[in-house]
């Protein structure tokens, strides 16, 4: 069961990371190539909307598998030097990443509502755009790049957790406490 839980945990983090990075690079980049400026934000918003349920499922699955892993490793988290601290950092990055992802979705909806103003790209406003659209697009650009950074950090910390489970590292960590 532990292998299945760990696999779900890792695969859902990978989906969250990969989908977010593809959206920021591929989807937004492709939408920016639309000939009609009003289509640029609309097409990007449609793509992100289609991805949102998968991303939400990935984040939810990651959280559930993470809770199961916490239960399976609770003794080691409390006893092995460094594991508890890394668990706190990873949990904080996961919660922050989920919040950023949610807020990016809210801002994306706002940008979609203002799509008739047109834009240079999904997150690049035109000079004559309203301040509301400009602000939303600027924030969205930062958030859409923050998501793969945060979800990538979660993956890296997950790998670090895995390394901490090697017998030699468990021994050192228990001896270090």
UniProtKB/TrEMBL annotation:
Keywords from the named record: Membrane, Transmembrane, Transmembrane helix
Protein name: Uncharacterized protein
TM stretches of this protein: 50-70
Source organism superkingdom: Bacteria
Annotated organism of origin: Arthrobacter zhangbolii
Upper taxonomic lineage: Bacteria, Bacillati, Actinomycetota, Actinomycetes, Micrococcales
Keyword Transmembrane helix: yes
């Amino acid at each position: 069961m532990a292998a299945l839980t760990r696999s779900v945990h890792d695969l859902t983090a990978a989906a969250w990371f990969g989908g977010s990075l593809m959206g920021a690079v591929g989807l937004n980049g492709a939408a920016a190539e639309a000939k009609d400026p009003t289509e640029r934000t609309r097409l990007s918003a449609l793509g992100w909307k289609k991805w949102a349920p998968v991303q939400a499922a990935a984040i939810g699955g990651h959280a559930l598998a993470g809770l199961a892993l916490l239960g399976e490793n609770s003794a080691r988290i409390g006893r092995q030097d460094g594991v508890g601290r890394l668990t706190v950092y990873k949990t904080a990055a996961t919660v922050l990443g989920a919040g950023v992802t949610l807020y990016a979705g809210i801002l994306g909806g706002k940008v979609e509502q203002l799509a008739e103003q047109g834009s240079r790209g999904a997150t690049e406003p035109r000079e004559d755009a309203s301040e509301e659209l400009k602000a939303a697009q600027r924030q969205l650009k930062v958030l859409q790049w923050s998501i793969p950074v945060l979800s990538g950090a979660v993956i890296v910390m997950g790998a670090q957790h895995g390394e901490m489970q090697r017998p030699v590292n468990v021994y050192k960590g228990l001896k270090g406490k």
